Amino acid sequence: MLKEILEQPETLRNVLRGRLVEDDGDVHLGGLNVTDADLLAVDRIVLTGCGSSWHAALIGEYMLEELARLPVEVEYASEFRYRNPIVDERTLVVGLSQSGETADTLAALREAKRRGARTLGIVNVVGSTIAREVDGGIYLHAGPEIGVASTKAFTSQIAALTLLTLKIGRLRALSILQGREVVRGLAHLPALAQRALAQAPVVERIADQLVATTNALYLGRGYNFPVALEGALKLKEISYIHAEGYPAAEMKHGPIALIDDKMPVVFIAPRDAVYQKVVSNLAEVKTRGARVLAVVTEGDTGLARLADYHVEIPETLDLLTPILSVLPLQLLAYYVAVRRGCNVDQPRNLAKSVTVE
Fold first, then answer.
1. pTM of this structure
2. Residue 356 above 70 pLDDT?
């Protein structure tokens, strides 16, 4: 797992290589197999997946709605297949799966095709069942992911969704200047990820403080709310500590009752469009005695002073912050699990690829 976490600067390069067209503020996606006219005919997008792929899809929803101005829904594949979903020929259904063999995601895509929708896959394994059955898609090129808990595939999925967003956005609502800004942000990501991962010794020291905890709360807003879900899932999967991810503002609607001096709270709080709101939420938690770990933008001394522990990530575009902010959370889960004597690569009761219901 640690090897795969540290590979992410390279896997990000791989998913972006040959696909960015900076002069046009656009991307080249040779495997999409869907014409521009087909994409313009789409009036709704459904993103579907399971586990970490579902969290990546939530980030994709935020991106696509903001930059491409299309309504997007995110569905658990396991639920989508047993509903009577409203899907037709003007719907684009995108399935996310590292293995390309996830039974529920495959069944959801088959149901969407049966109803006339166009289907795309965002998968890592070349020649997998999903890759063969969809109309087209984007390969992650992340290399084999052996650890059961998804790390490098998750960040590659977000990068691939950004590429898809750029493709559809430039056809619809995104100006060439906005497109160039996103392309440049993507091009810088591998180097920024390397800088974020250099904080591993800081995260390792923080992990020592969390080994004995039995519960944890992860909070974020906007693009980083799904990162809170993903960070909590990583801790659950490999350290067996109960953790929940919530939108930071929803804390007041119930979870705040859990907070005391024994409850560590992880805030994903980069300096973005909702930064001040997150600072306010963090202050509320601090006054109730919680131990706070904050993931902050480099140089944010104010928030660093407010938190008990902090980890810095480089500054980037708001929509790209999840790729960087999840890195210290992956490391945190890893170091906590190792200190608890857990098998981080093969956690109990879990399989890498869920090929049955």
1. 0.96
2. no
Angle at 49 between CA 43 and CA 55, to 5 degrees: 95
Helix extents (H) in the chain = 2-6, 8-16, 36-41, 52-63, 77-80, 103-114, 129-133, 152-172, 176-197, 200-210, 225-239, 275-287, 301-306, 321-339
Tokens read off for 259: 């907070």
pLDDT digits (tens, 9 = 90+) for 46-60: 999 999 999 999 999
Q: Are 135 and 144 in contact (CB under 8 A)?
A: no
Task: State the helix-helix crossing angle for 321-339 and 200-210, rounded to 10 degrees.
Answer: 50
Decide if 354 contacts 104 (C-beta within 8 A).
yes
Contact 100, 140 (CB under 8 A): no
Express each pLDDT in 69-82 by its tens digit: 999 999 999 999 88
Looking at the DSSP bridge assignments, the partners of residue 343 are none
Half-sphere exposure of 275 (CA within 13 A, CB side): 13
Of 54-68, 189-203, 274-288, which gets the smallest average pLDDT? 274-288
Distances (CA, A) of 33 to 71, 75, 119, 121, 139: 22, 23, 10, 11, 13
Nearest to 272 by CA among 203, 328, 320: 320
- Please give the Cα distance from 294 to 310 (Å, whole number): 5
Report phi then psi at 342, rounded to 5: -90, 155
**Residue whose token pair is 């906005």:** 178
Residues 17, 22, 26: CA angle, nearest 5 degrees? 85
Amino acid at residue number 261: D
Q: Return phi, psi of residue 304, to 5°.
A: -60, -40
